[in-house]
Amino acid sequence: MATKNTTIRDVAREAKVSVASVSRVLNGTGGVTPETQRIVREVAARLHYVPDNAARSLITGRTHTIGAVLPDLYGEFFSELIRGIDLAARARGLHLLVSSSHDGVDAAAAAVRAMRGRVDGMLILSEHVDEKFLEENLPASLPAVLLDSPVKSTRFPVLNIDSRAGALAMVQHLIEKGRQNVAFIAGPKSNFDAQQRDKGYRAAMAKHAPDAPLNIVAGDFSEESGYRAGRELLAQKKRPNAVFAANDMMAVGCLYAFKEAGVDVPGDIALAGFDDILIARYVTPPLSTVQVRIADLGRIALERLAALLDPTDTTPASVQTLGCDIVVRETCGGNASAAPAPRKPKRPPST
Questions:
Q1: Which residue has the higher pLDDT, 323 or 8?
Q2: Which CATH class for the 8-60 domain?
Q3: Between 163-176 and 192-208, two packed helices, what is the crossing angle to 10 degrees?
Q4: Which H or E element spans position 98?
Q5: By three-state DSSP, how is residue 35 classified?
Q6: Bridging pattern class, strands 121-124 and 144-147
Q7: What is the pTM of this model?
Q8: How far apart are CA 334 and CA 311, in angstroms?
Q9: CB atoms within 10 A of CB 260
Q10: Is the fold of 65-160+295-321 the same as that of 163-293+324-340?
Q11: Does domain 65-160+295-321 have CATH number 3.40.50.2300?
């Protein structure tokens, strides 16, 4: 029966392993079989054993906590990203500390600095982060993995979405379905993913509809900006016959503007987004989009960071790019289907 005085020795006795094995499991230092890890965690949970984290940190020099700095905590993309990170962290006995940096570079710097000494490593997704920012705000001893970043560094692994290829594939699909006049709702100018999706749109138009004019309206990744962009497109003298939004939230806002004006989607205007957030499947009509496996992005980022925490890991920092698929639903006039976006040639690891 569990008591408030349960010790690590009680866990070791119940699990029929050594105290050292229990310590290795709970500290995440490795050297223990998966079966032993499972038994130790089950016994520790049953006995309600709570390690003395302060004492453990003094001994191991680790907090067993990972920090994540994100642009925002609002919306389906970030909740799904956090879910992927957290599931992977908990599987390794790690806790997650999350902060946002949506108020600008000073907020991002404050968030990073506030985590120093509290976390063993960090995942950073912020448009404000460059080499100078990292040098000024991140101690050399603190491992970090960057997400959706243009930074190329010998110190920091980077995990990106292949936004350019995904955007190119979706616009190409729209054009091949007879929609030559494709408009683009852009994301924030300083956002790396938005920049890559802009490049993909331009490349697809140049290759597959060279005689059609570019039609780009501003957005900021929010539903409201998508709604405003939709109204702006409807006010044009020559309306587009397809719209590609740089994310699903803007596409949903645009869809509402079209419905409000009595525009038939896809009959009058086809519509597509990017990310494949959950709501994309349940709007009417269901939204065509570029599918990003958001939870997998979080999981892979955490796994890469966990590897950095292993002192025996010698994997060099590199830029890893995750591919994405186009998902054709009714806003493009099709039934649900998925096809891989064309992959760019793999970039060699940074050295």
A1: 323
A2: mainly alpha
A3: 30
A4: strand 95-100
A5: helix
A6: parallel
A7: 0.77
A8: 51
A9: 12
A10: yes
A11: yes
